Amino acid sequence: MDMNERKIKLGQRIRLEREAQGISLRRFALMVGLGHTYLVDVENGRRNIGIENICKIADGLGIKVSMLVDDL
Asked: Could you say which DSSP state residue 2 is in?
């Protein structure tokens, strides 16, 4: 799997978990302190994301980072 595929898969995992919890993208952006546009790009696999922001997202979703990044 190349890096682009990994970014897409990570974004899909984030979106699926966020939607499963019934959290809108705008509300989630406010919850985790990240920009709405940034999160749109992450969820669509168009943005590189650092470990600090992966941790913010995982914490906001109440899940372990490993749930987002395992098997990438």
From this structure: -
Helices 25-32 + 36-43 axis angle, to 10: 110
pTM above 0.90, yes or no: yes
Q: Give yes or no for a contact between 18 and 27, defined as CB atoms under 8 angstroms apart.
A: no
Tens of each residue's pLDDT in the chain, 72 residues: 899 999 999 999 999 999 999 999 999 999 999 999 999 999 999 999 999 999 999 999 999 999 999 998
Scanning the structure block, which residue is given the tokens 């682009």? 4
Give me the residue label for tokens 């992450």.
Answer: 42
Could you count the other beta carbons within 10 Å of the beta carbon of residue 42? 22
- Altogether, the residues listed in the chain come to a count of 72
Considering only CA atoms, which of 15, 71, 2 is closest in space to residue 41? 15
